[in-house]
Sequence to fold (397 residues):
Amino acid sequence: MEYFLIIISAIFVNNIVLAQFLGICPFLGVSNKLSTATGMSGAVCFVITLSTLVTWLINHYLLEPFQLEFLQTIAFILVIAALVQMVEIILKKISPSLYQALGIFLPLITTNCAVLGVAINVVTKQFTFGGEPHMLNLAESLVYAFATSLGYGLAMVIFAGIREHLALNDVPKSFKGVPIALVTVGILAMAFMGFSGMVK
Amino acid sequence: MSNRMKLISGGLVKNNPTFVLLLGMCPTLATTTSAINGLSMGLATLFVLVLSNMAISAIAPAVPDKVHIPVYIVVIATFVTLLQLLMQAFTPAIYETLGLFIPLIVVNCIVLGRAEAFASKNGVLDSACDGIGVGLGFTLSLTVLGLVREILGAGSIFGWSFLGGRDGMLAFVLAPGAFICLGYLMVLFNKLFNKEK
Fold:
């Protein structure tokens, strides 16, 4: 039951883009076409889940025992950068077709604040999910990270769909490009506000 | 000297990081729930930007080309950690409010962008001026956005309420208002400064 609440909360109620403002740059950057949006969401999903696993372990078994929590930022960003590089190299060898599909998005993910954001969130924040406030254990962190990245994919795909239609419309000159996209995201975020309060 | 002034003023309007270069969107949207929050986030980024620009321009000639991005990220992360510790010690209330977005300055594209595009090719003093200019531009846009959202959403200016106890339009403090306000401010900025477009 708790896992179900985590999933609903991470995808809809606290959607990472529309409620937490993480990963906006790639969200605006690659949502022009539905196909690139799906590719990017896939890559982000993969990296967020993997990096959360590694950073959680590092934090729990390396930083906490030696009381080095203040090094979290430096340690995590290094882990993420190394991980993205590694994933890129491994994918190139093992599955060239998947590498082709995700290829150009992988290097961009290092500077996607959603990845670092989720990694820091799961080790520093207390979550409620209907019960007592508590720190997440490894399994909960992984479910949370995976669901959050699904939420990222959901927002990305919906927005790309809207944007493909938007491109065909006659938009006033000053609104062209990013401004109209931002106003659209605003309305989308308002729709997602309907979910708030569903999971505390 | 006038050249350095130009570097500083360029970041304010011509190369404004938020409205023109569209960099650092996440903190821009997330931390501008009030003018004071926007201002503090802007100043925090300014601090990291100036110091990392100076450090990177000093070490850039010695860094091998292949590993320059990881090296820059470590330098930036070091200054961000410094900032975190300083803020925890001296301004704990602001540190609590800005929360996650202080460590996330590491992945703010403005900081890495300036390191890569300017600091790695220029002198220490010029890089410091560039950092000040871009940082002030970022601070300015965050403060303006925070001010607009605070006026519409909470009916106050820098915490001073003019509605006399009534509620503002709460949506502007919440997520949708952030996107919509930034969109409209960008339109205004385009209209005022990019006439040739």
